[in-house]
């Protein structure tokens, strides 16, 4: 499975309100916020922490279903878990059915890459980047626990 978070170009200095896109591609299909009318781009640095928090509930087995909608967007993903797998579904249909560990690692990698490219160092006085980095740290712990349990 491939997950990519990208910031749209030409927005000036990085800020918590930058628009960006998500791409989720798996063996069953693809879900992307790119190329839709109306536009499905989202405030990426606010959306990714929301996604990470939703997946934290799912991967720590406190919930069997999770839904994510990008901030200021209509881009949506739904996640459903069983004992062994997670099904990822976009509006156009299924994207992938993968293990909990693969989902955790794939999303963690995409979130860390976005942070290293655009939030290192964090923009001064930007609370969105603080929230992003805090959610990322929590998700890193969850991903480590999922790895140990599988």
Structural summary, described in words:
39% of the residues lie in helices and 29% in strands. Strand 7 and strand 8 form a beta hairpin. The protein contains three helices and eight strands. It has 150 residues and is an alpha+beta fold.
Total beta strand runs: 8
Share of residues in helices? 25-40%
Radius of gyration over all CA atoms, rounded: 15 Å
Strand content: 25-35%
N→C terminal distance = 18 Å
Described by the principal axes of the CA atoms, the overall outline is globular
Uncertain runs with pLDDT below 50, 5 residues or more? none
Number of helix segments? 3
H/E element string? EEEEHEEEEHH
Mean pLDDT: 93
Structural class: alpha+beta
Let me know the largest β-sheet.
4 strands, antiparallel
Question: What are the defining features of this structure?
Answer:
single chain; 150 residues; alpha+beta; 4-stranded antiparallel sheet; 3 helices; 39% helix; globular
Quick gist of this model?
By secondary structure, the chain is α+β, with helices and mostly antiparallel strands. The protein contains three helices and eight strands.
Secondary structure elements and pairings:
Layout: E1 2-7, E2 19-26, E3 29-32, E4 42-43, H1 44-59, E5 65-69, E6 76-81, E7 85-90, E8 93-99, H2 100-118, H3 127-149
Antiparallel strand pairs: 1-2, 2-3, 2-4, 5-6, 6-7, 7-8
